[in-house]
Amino acid sequence: MKQILILCDYMSIIFNKTKLDMNYLLKPVTYGPVVKGTQDSTHIRLWSRVKVKRELKAKKSVCVISRLKVLGDANYMFADFRYMVAPRRHKYITMFDYQQLLCNTTYEYQIGYLLIDTKTFSGDYFDTAENVIDNFDWTHASYGTFKTGNIEHTSFIFGSCRKWIKIFGSEICGMGSSADQVYNAIRCHSIDFFLSVGDQIYLDPICKNFLQTKSFKDMVKRYDKVRNYDNIKHLMANTCTYEICDDHDHLVNDSNYALRKKYKNIYKNSIRAYFYYQSINGPFAYSKQYHEPLYYNFEKEYAAFFVMDTRDERDERSVLSKKIISKKQMCCFEEWLVSNESSDKILFLVSPTPVLSQVSQDSWYGYPKQQAKLLRMIAQCKNKNIFILTGDVHCCRVGIYQMFVNNDLQQREVLCDRLFIEIASSGLASTSHSYGKECKTHKIHNESTTDLLFDIENYNNDNDFPYEIDNIPNGGIKLVTYYAKESVPKRNDKISKGVFTKITIKDNKETMTVEFFNQNNNLLDNCIFNLSV
Q1: How does pLDDT run across 350-398, given as a tens digit for each residue?
Q2: Which of 71, 104, 381, 495 is the most buried (most CB within 10 A)?
Q3: Please, what are the domains in the chain?
């Protein structure tokens, strides 16, 4: 009853009751809508932005209204209406909460806006809110459908690195509307959600000092441009979406503490833009003085996810104790592991930056003590089904690694019997792809030795994923490749061949299928993990 009175009060401000006999035409939102995922699989947020002409800003306010129902139901219920005067200070972005939705259910929604005369923000109460609602004309409102978690299986697509280049008004290298094709391929799949693992908006498409997007206004234009291509717009309006930033969304290539300080103003603008468009809590979680952490976790029916922020908390001022994530984030991850170690859920650590496979100062390798601590946490966890999802490396690939305690490969003293599995998915749209060769360590066992039937030196040649990753001299650990899929696109694919990864957990959590697709939705490769072992 209280909610109805509040809505009646609010609507009475907007409309004059002498006009109840006319329809109020709702206009479609300018950007979006986007179905944003939250920590709960039966809770979503509906994001939208309205662009208002300059001459109307002083005289008009923007009221955004949405409604939701189960697909196939005859009528929308009053309890599922939401409304908000879009805050001008947040670029007219709104986020509507829909909680306690039915599981394994498809919903449809509509969302639109009205311009309100600022001077008429007064009036009498309406007897019932339905008197107002019945007079809305939804014909031209934006709309979409989405489904909540599936109790029979968990299926999702993840990817990263959607490059966008524009020079002198022209989109080049296939990095404009043509790169939207990969999202059309993603739309063809029935999935529970889409997970973006960084670099969706390239603020520095070529290099730090050329075509760098610097102002908040230009960053908003960049987001609006890329998000408004047909296929990505349709995908995000009809699929639950989760996002996290990497370096090109965050600031510049290989962004870290030093670069945050060097480009202080650009950083402030980029992190504000991130909260406006990518954060699960939207612009309301950001202020000039404070913004909440970027990392978060969420659960689905068969799986639990910890999405790390490996950019905003980097601190390399102390060479001996460099940090890729804060102590607080590391503690939160440890608590998440402990809380899930007796769970029957499949666990996914999502890191925009590679944890295992890269010998690079920009990856976890460049922060050896924290890399070792992270992997030891995973090794000690009783839940044996833990997978690392990452992006950044411009290819799709599965790599499996063992951890060693000493620097002598011949002794092969394994630190633990745990195998660490990293699945990379990158190059949604990019101008180049990393190289990678298939590595199968067929072993011959006899009384005295274990030999490898492949040439390590040849494997390492022109391969961005080395056989050995030795961080012991820096106070870290050593990882040795146990098995690796050949990366896709293939090594001779120099030009963009947009790729993404689909993961499906099914058969009562007995198996997990990993499939790699290109922008034409052709299956490139796949592998199956037995989860019951």
Answers
A1: 999 999 999 999 999 999 999 999 999 999 999 999 999 999 999 999 9
A2: 381
A3: 2-147 (2.60.40.380), 154-440+470-530 (3.60.21.70)
